[in-house]
Amino acid sequence: GRSAAVRHFRGRAGWRAGGGMVKKALCVGCNYPSKKFGLSGAVNDAFLLADCLQRSCGFCPDDICVLHDVLPGQAKSSERLVDPSRRPTRANIVQRLQGLVRSARPGDVVFFSFSGYGLQVDDVESYQDDGLDEAILPTDFAEGVDGDYAVLVASDIHDVLMSAPQGCTVTVVMDCDHATSVIDVSGTLDGRLVRGLNSGSACGFAMHNAKMRPAEHNRDVWLQEQGLAVHARPRFQPTVQIANPRKAKVPTRTAMPRAVPRAFCYSAARHGQTAVELQVAGRVDGRDTVQQHGMLSWCFVHALEDLRSDCTHAALLDAIAARLAGLRERHLSSIDQEVLLTFSAAFVGPAQVQGAPPRRGLDRVFWQLRGWGLLQLVELAKPVVSRGGAAAAARILGGGGLHGDSSFASLSQTEDQQNHLATAGLQIWRAAWA
Fold first, then answer.
1. Judging by beta carbons within 10 Å of its beta carbon (0-12, 13-18, 19+), is residue 10 exposed, middle or buried?
2. Tens digit of pLDDT for each residue in 228-282?
3. How far is the C-alpha of 242 from the C-alpha of 345, rounded, in Å?
4. Residue 105's closest CA among 157, 170, 49?
């Protein structure tokens, strides 16, 4: 059971009994205390998420790393009390993220979160009209090379995360603006490309890359009277020009694997929307208090608790949206952010389902899928699969993955069935985290 899994992993940091699953997390919070335009809630987010992973998801405390530039809930002056190895500098973020992924084995769970500023970057050395890179700002962004900002480009984060081994589950929470291309711009619930992609045509064919069109933000979201009352702050910085923002390119494996991990990313806002942080009520050590938090982090944790960590990613997304709607109604009616879920995964390959006879063999297929953490996928797909037996299971569930391809359901199915299977394809939270 789930409680047994929690007991099994607590107190055994990095211990892998008989090749069992290990869960590791990196939670990053950047308040930028040395800057006039710093945030107040990003570090709170990182510790809130880390606490949730330990309490609700069976992560061992020793397997959770929190990078932060102030102490949670403390003044900017507490920056000097933070261990330098725990500060969210670009070098520390890259090193910890690479270590997290490189230590993962098939069946492991990897969690990464970032709370801070996102921005768009204009690469002045790229082709004209090539589009803008999405990026995040580490706490030491002002210490870049040749006078440029030190940024971490979304495509670099993607390369590191997607080098995790096949069978590994990766979950990402990006509580900042301009972070919709971290996993897969085509892996969406409705099958459409993420909003704001730079596109064009060549030889009569429509084309796109992972770069974005310029985004505009509505300042009324956080600057009107209601926003000022709850200390609302946006989580973006203006577009900057950098000569080759990937000049400090993050090294990855010599060859990116064709088989990708099961990866899911929750982005705080879509293109042109504004991710915000504001003051929300909560309880700390049994006392009622008010703390600054990013909306995605706060809603993510409380939605997961509402569902008792037993839900699909699609259901969790709905619960997050409900929580966000409550905050919009009670605190800030101008909130325009909508949480975006993207994913990229070869959920199950044909090798896992082929060869089992129809009907009776389906039970064996479903049991194998359960081992992959896809129990609710099985329940949702049963009505379709049972009509075609194991061959249908192989055809529907072994479609070759989602990375870079929006056609993630069998084209032989009706549109309703495709939508149903796309939703079913979101690997369940409980099996992945318990």
1. middle
2. 999 999 999 999 988 766 655 555 544 445 567 889 999 999 999 999 999 998 7
3. 32
4. 170
